[in-house]
Amino acid sequence: MALIECPSCNKRISSKATECQHCGSQLSGDNQVLSKISHIKRSAQLVNQGLLSMSLFIAGVVVWFWGGEPAEGLRSYIGGACFVLGFVGYLVTRLQIVLHERKKV
Ligand SMILES: [Zn+2]
Predict the structure, then answer these.
(1) Of 4, 83, 91, 103, which is most buried by a Cβ count within 10 Å?
(2) Measured in angstroms, how far is the CA atom of residue 31 from the centroid of ligand 1?
(3) If you measure from the C-alpha of residue 17 to the centroid of ligand 1, how many angstroms do you get, rounded to a whole number?
(4) How do the domains of the chain map onto residue ranges?
(5) Per-residue pLDDT tens digits for 15-71
(6) What is the C-alpha radius of gyration for the chain, rounded to an integer number of angstroms?
């Protein structure tokens, strides 16, 4: 059970209470709902970011090894750039997801 502050009197009350036990004001619970929604939205955003990085990584590998031979010249730069960006992007996203999940709603 978490404690939140009453929006009217700022005294600590249970997050599950429907009305403040100090001043009797009704609590809508909107604040919690909003913070939950934004938490879920951020999670979805991070998952998309991870998929995008993964696609970039795979695209880099495909460009690099297209035709069964290691790339040369411009193709190797493009493939290498996608590969590295995708890989780093994926690692960063994983880290962001871990940090995000640690946050309690
Ligand atoms: Zn109150």
Answers:
(1) 83
(2) 15
(3) 11
(4) 29-102
(5) 778 888 899 888 766 666 767 888 889 999 999 999 999 999 999 988 888 777 777
(6) 24
Do residues 50 and 97 touch, judged by C-beta distance below 8 A? yes
Q: In this structure, what are the phi and psi dihedrals at residue 26, rounded to the nearest 5 degrees?
A: -75, 140
Which single residue is written with the structure tokens 């004001």? 25
- Are the C-beta atoms of 90 and 54 separated by less than 8 Å? yes
CA–centroid distance, residue 9 to ligand 1 (Å)? 4
Look-up of token digits 């429907």: 18
36 C-alpha vs ligand 1 centroid, how far in Å?
Answer: 22
Length of the chain: 105
Rounded-to-integer distance, Cα 6 and Cα 28, Å: 11
Q: What separation in Å is there between the alpha carbon of 34 and the centre of ligand 1? A: 20
